[in-house]
Design goal:
This protein is 38% helix and 15% strand. The chain has 13 helices and 15 strands. It has a seven-stranded mixed beta sheet. Strands 7-6-13 form a three-stranded antiparallel beta sheet, with no helix packed on it. It has a three-stranded antiparallel beta sheet with strand order 12-14-15.
Length: 389
Amino acid sequence: MQKMNVPYSYLTEQYRRGSALREHILVDLNDLMDDGQYTLGWPVKRFERAFEKTFKVKHAIGVSNGTDALALSLVALGLNNQNQWVAAPSATFVATIGAILQAGANVRLVDVDPQGLIDKSAAHRTPARCVIGVDWGGMPVSWDSDNNWLEGKHFIRDAAQSIGASINGVSVANLGECVCFSLHPLKNLNVMGDGGVIATNDDALAKELRLLRNHGLADRDTVARPGFNHRLSSLQAISAYWQLALPYTMENLDWVIEQRIRNARSYDTWLKKCPMVQISPRIPEVKAVYHLYVIQAERRNDLVRYLQSQGIEAKVNYPVPCHLQPGFAFLGYGSGSLPETERQAQRIISLPIHQYLRDEQIEYAATCIQSFYQDPEKALSEATANRAG
């Protein structure tokens, strides 16, 4: 089998010279420099309207990043002091927990289910007034306003990894009081830096969030309430807008998502033949968007080492869960506190899944995984010899 490079990142391809996305962005940047509307100008308003139309949500509020989207949502719901507890899974990027602390609330970490999503029964048992459900890897947490597992708790969706996902045909942008998206460069809808969006169908919340992101200013001279400086940059809004507005091409969000789903199905077909690899159940009514393609695997660390030696940029997101991070030791959790989270942290691997992968690259990555498990010791020996050579 001839060695092949299977890269994890795709950003230089997305903004390549001559692409429609790059050309439209450059035209708009010239217009922006002509009129100087750099702060909450027409690019932000245009992007927000396009987001609302695309995902059929009443309000989209552009903010500085996904972390601030979560923190502002908590503040808008009144969850901004030490008397308020917010539950979240430990199996998440640090930003989810950091946002709770940034807002001023207390953190209650809970375990995950076998899919890596928040354990609803554990969340139900907490005294928290709010639950943050994390759409891990682009797989959305199921939610319904009548679900008794919430039992009067607020629900904020950390949809940083799930833009474009849906349940029973309903966009996740509508499945939560506040739904918080990241526009980080590696997300399916992204910008050239940092950005975020909060989606809500609640008029009063939308008004509060627009105040909070811009110093609490009702107008230039009137401070309606204390606020923050968490505005979405006009420059970043231009990039995000065109990924929604372009026709169905290699830069359009719908194309990006469909390609990722196609790639995931191809991986599924290959890896079902490998008993040492566990793939999460695929639920017909749930449209996952595969920001990450995550599997659980035996001898995870050895497999990652072997794949990387073969040119496959496999990653581990995230090897140390938040409750075991030294920076969160003050929360009082220790080894064994959240057993399913800790079990999965020893087994998960993220394979390259981006929209520019070719069929032969996916086949190559899957074949390398199968080859590893046929004789792990031989595979590792060859990998070591290749590095030494």
